[in-house]
Specification:
By secondary structure, the protein is an alpha+beta fold. It contains 2 helices and 4 strands; from the N terminus they run αββββα. The protein has helices at 19-36, 93-122; strands at 46-53, 56-59, 69-76, 81-88. The longest helix has 30 residues, at 93-122.
């Protein structure tokens, strides 16, 4: 694609109400910016974060929600590939897998929003 080159992307976060949610939003922004700039990639990456609180997964946890465990998933829906998983806190394997699956499902919906934004930018 771009041999012997690197692409640096910088994001300025003006306000953050949760580390994992901010990281997920940053991944979505950079993915959208690369696509909008016409930089060839395998797929557009969509990201989502969830926090576990009282045995319930909450999408984009805030600082005030004090999650016991947080999971972030970056996903490429067109090729059905998870490109990154980040977890903080402790949980069982089953609960972790449930969180990753829920994040992946949300990523598919985020991906649809990203695609609509890209379509609107070319119209």
């Amino acid at each position: 694609m771009y041999p012997k080159s690197s692409i640096d992307a910088y994001v300025t976060v003006i306000e953050s109400d949760g580390k994992m949610a901010t990281l997920a939003a940053t991944i979505n922004c950079i993915s959208l910016a690369l696509a909008d700039a016409g930089i060839e990639t395998y797929d557009t990456v969509a990201a989502c974060s969830m926090g576990l609180r009282d045995s319930q997964w909450i999408v984009d946890c805030t600082h005030q929600e004090n999650a016991e465990c947080s999971v972030l998933v970056a996903y490429m829906p067109s090729v059905d590939e998870v490109t990154g998983v980040l977890q903080t806190g402790k949980t069982t394997l089953e609960v972790h897998e449930q969180g990753v699956q829920l994040c992946t499902n949300v990523c598919v919906r985020v991906y649809a929003v990203i695609c609509r934004a890209l379509q609107a930018s070319v119209e």
